[in-house]
Amino acid sequence: MVDALSGLTSSDQEVTEILRSHQRRIGNQAIPPILLVVNKADNADLRSAAYDFYSLGLGNPFAISAIHGTGTGDLLDELVKVLPEQESQDEDDSIKIAIVGKPNVGKSSLLNMITGEERAIVSPIAGTTRDAVDTHFTYEEKNITLIDTAGIRRRGKIDRGVEKYSVIRSMRAIERSDVALLMVDATESMSAQDTHIAGFILDAWKSAVVLVNKWDLVEKDSYTMDEFRKRIQYSLNFMDYVPVLFISAKTSKRVSSVLPEALRVQEERMVKIKTSQLNRVLHKAQDQHSPTSKTGRILRIYYGTQVRSDPPTFMLFVNDSKLAHFTYLRYIENQLRKEYPFTGTPIRLVLKSRG
Fold first, then answer.
1. What's the maximum distance between 2 C-alpha atoms anywhere in the chain?
2. For residues 171 and 175, what is the distance between their CA atoms, to the nearest angstrom?
3. If you average pLDDT over residues 314-342, what whole number do you get?
């Protein structure tokens, strides 16, 4: 790109010579096309002056105004023409595992420790990671995509600009993942923000594993781990099916168990239950505890079937879906998990009224 206001300068000629030198150096290899763009051509006189750049020998100059958009349409048309045809890409069938959490809980350190390479920059300064970074590798003959994300702070503390879009990319990483590794700081109590991030994972119907990082910094006795786990389960009572691991990404303590646990959760996510087995659980649950109603009409579940996995989704055919209270549906889910745990994985129950 050159400047119409400045006219043809020696610097433009030097850059042109560098481009030609590069073309001579690559020889018979495919030479990338060069488009000569003359910017700041805001009026007719400047657009006419743009033709002086023909002398550079780089072809037809495109006179544009980046501020006003003048001439950008012709430039875009030419750019589309010279772009290479896109080759068909194979579908990505890898298992996607996103590492999420607040800033500075050790997400990038965990990525580096799992891969055995310095894939991400590690710094004690919160907010070092700005974008979601995908790392592809093979583990036990399975294709894995590990996604390192930026820390997610409370909405009121998110600055405009780069941090705002970093958080948006982190949220999108959760949406395209299969399993989310929710990292929390062992040196801090389970915070409201940790709970909010867990809520984001649940809203996206993703499986999860809670990783309590920096466990090496905690003074422990024989009861510390159980007490910490109970506090997490209390804070995440809406996700009490999620497994909890205590690790240290810095010292690699128990890091070797992270991927096996994530893959186990992914397998649970894909479990398919036969219709006959599902209905046995449903009928047994109703016999043990029938729903109550203040209107005189009670919910009746006739039968159910699993309509999909990833996440496990069950269609329950009932007399009237409006009679279903969320507490009874939670009871049905708990009874189902007694037979089929679906470890770390949410269960979706969809009611369909008969007729």
1. 90
2. 6
3. 92
